[in-house]
Write a structure and sequence with these properties.
Elements: H1 2-11, H2 16-24, H3 29-36, E1 47-50, H4 60-75, E2 82-87, H5 93-106, E3 110-113, H6 120-129, E4 134-138, E5 147-154, H7 162-173, H8 186-192, E6 195-197, H9 200-211, E7 223-227, H10 234-244, E8 248-251, H11 273-286, E9 290-294, E10 301-306, E11 312-315, H12 317-335, E12 343-347, H13 354-360, E13 364-368, H14 372-384, E14 391-396, E15 400-402, H15 412-427, H16 433-444, E16 446-455, H17 458-474, E17 479-480, E18 483-491, E19 496-501, E20 506-511, E21 517-526, H18 529-549
Parallel strand pairs: 2-3, 2-4, 3-6, 7-8, 7-9, 12-13, 12-14
Antiparallel strand pairs: 1-5, 4-5, 9-10, 10-11, 14-15, 16-21, 17-18, 18-19, 19-20, 20-21
Helix pairs in contact: 4-5, 4-7, 9-10
Length: 550
């Protein structure tokens, strides 16, 4: 460990911040160990970690090493020797994007780089629009400010498959982060054309592709408040809303401009109320029909609507998914645009309420493992079968939505369009989205979902997390919250465990693939809202006890 530390102290000199950090922890063995005890894990989600010095941190050296591995992989295939690159508002995001471009250019691969921050779905679009062999998006999505990440996309615009990730990882593991990386001069590569700025026509085509998916309801009377949460959504969302004809748009001022420190929300995730608080306060003044928020890389969207009592109520990701599924199905049927044998896709951890809604409209509902790449994979399967039109909608409970095949990842620009159209359609009937959701509950039953998390920090935390999961895999609980466990399902080679209780409750235990935490997804169905809440309270208590006793 000391040898690796000393080498970094001597050679990581291009970024003074890293040297200062290394010197600051020199007398702290635990801090040194945490930075060097492993390489930052590379998987289907690429890299994600805390910014800083060391092999277990996000910095220019770990980014370069990963890109060299990607370049070696790409040069060993028949894929196009071109890569699209984007970044969001994260700290050092632009730097990491430029460093990745330098490595690619030095390896004979053309790097197409967005000249300013852009959403993740715009990167997915660019990969196919520019006929690239891969894509890189420098983002840590909705994680706190101290994180950054590095997502890798395949030629299909979807996050890379486990097989491809394994091959890239094998190349990365052969690469020394200091001596094994080829590096071009950025300005020289730009002049030579091996680094190219992505022209505005690519981004405009992306927005137009989203717009082409409109069901077509008039949104001109919609009053809207929007927050990009200091991220990358502002440009594309404003372009889209202008083209849709939205005339009353107020952007939350303190969250309008890109800022990787996220000063108003330590956890810039529209799933969390704290991130939406500034928007909710503005709603009390503006009184909009709808509040929308997109996360820093603009692939997730959150919303709030009038609650009928003078305030605003956040719509959950599951509720928005069901609302949009129902809206798209009924609208397409009414307009005669529903394809034969339509398909919707969601994940195993998303609400069971999607099943009866899809069945009501004659839509096949497919469930995948957690992660939008698996929904994108289903689009690719339908495309390979010659029927991409069968795909009508996909969503996951973590605020990800997609109604077209223009990209292969969740798309908050697309979601903003759908939410606006859906809200305007119901407003024409004198209803809010909350009214619409309550109508659906009355029709299909009161489905309630909850998410619990248990966080693990550092090396000791990761080891404790693995012990906990190993214990659950070895022996399923006999009961949860006083309710007998009647079935256990193992997904993804045992990585995800699903427990079903006698009363119809469900607990899914999933170690996060991007953060040091275990997530527990809870779901129940009651005959009334009160009954569902009581069932959820019992299941929640049982799930917490389960985590405490394993």
């Amino acid at each position: 460990m000391n040898t690796i530390y000393q080498r970094w102290l001597e050679q990581a000199t291009e970024d003074p911040d890293l040297i200062s950090e290394l010197k600051a922890v020199q007398e702290d063995p635990a801090a040194v160990s945490d930075r060097f005890y492993r390489d930052l894990e590379f998987g289907t989600g690429g890299l994600r970690g805390v910014l800083g010095a060391g092999t277990n941190r996000m910095n220019i050296y770990t980014v370069r090493r990963a890109t060299q591995g990607l370049a070696d992989y790409l040069n060993g295939t028949n894929l196009p020797k071109a890569v699209a690159i984007a970044h969001d508002s994260r700290l050092k995001g632009e730097l990491f994007a430029r460093e990745a471009a330098r490595v690619l250019a030095a390896n004979g691969i053309t790097a197409h780089l967005y000249p300013r921050l852009e959403p993740t779905p715009a990167l997915s679009w660019a990969v196919r629009y520019l006929r690239c062999g891969a894509g890189i998006c420098v983002t840590a999505s909705h994680n706190p400010a101290q994180y950054n990440g590095y997502k890798v996309y395949g030629a299909d615009g979807c996050q890379i498959t486990p097989e491809a990730a394994g091959q890239v990882l094998a190349c990365i593991e052969k690469t020394d982060c200091f001596d094994g990386v080829k590096l071009a001069d950025y300005d020289e590569a730009l002049r030579a054309g091996t680094i190219r700025e992505i022209a505005d026509d690519c981004l405009d085509a992306f927005v137009d592709a989203v717009l082409a998916l409109r069901p077509g309801n008039d949104v001109s009377k919609l009053k809207l408040v929007y927050t990009p949460l200091n991220g990358s959504g502002l440009e594309c969302v404003k372009k889209l809303l202008a083209k849709m004809g939205v005339q009353e748009l107020t952007v939350v001022p303190e969250q309008e401009q890109p800022d990787g420190n996220f000063p108003t929300c330590p956890y810039p995730n529209p799933e969390i109320r704290e991130a939406m608080e500034a928007g909710l306060r503005l709603c009390d003044q503006v009184r909009p029909d709808l509040l929308l928020g997109t996360d820093p890389d603009c692939d997730r969207m959150g919303a709030a609507v009038p609650d009928g009592q003078g305030g605003y109520r956040l719509i959950t990701g599951n509720e928005m998914g069901v609302l949009l599924l129902d809206y798209l199905c009924r609208t397409r049927l009414e307009r005669g645009t529903m394809p034969e044998n339509p398909v919707a896709v969601t994940t195993i951890v998303s609400t069971d309420m999607a099943s009866p809604v899809a069945e009501h409209y004659g839509v096949e509902l497919r469930r995948t493992l957690t992660g939008f790449k698996y929904i994108g994979e289903q689009i690719g399967i339908l495309e390979a079968e010659g029927h991409p039109e069968r795909y009508i909608f996909g969503f996951e409970e973590s605020y990800g939505y997609l109604s077209g095949s223009h990209v292969r990842d969740k798309d908050a620009v697309n979601a903003v369009m759908l939410a606006c159209e859906c809200a305007a359609w119901y407003a024409g009937q004198g209803k809010t989205l909350l009214d619409a959701m309550n109508d659906l509950y009355a029709q299909y039953g009161w489905y309630k979902n909850a998410l619990l998390t248990q966080t693990f920090e550092g090396q000791a935390g990761m080891e404790a997390m693995e012990r906990l999961m190993s214990g659950l895999r070895a022996k399923s609980p006999e009961q949860i919250g006083g309710d007998s466990v009647v079935d256990t399902v193992s997904h993804d080679g045992g990585g995800v465990l699903e427990f079903h209780t006698e009363s119809g409750g469900k607990v899914i235990v999933r170690p996060s693939g991007t953060e040091p935490k275990i997530k527990l997804y809870l779901s129940v169905r009651g005959g009334s809202e009160q009954e569902a809440e009581q069932m959820m309270a019992r299941l929640t208590a049982g799930a917490k006890a389960l985590m405490d006793t394993v």
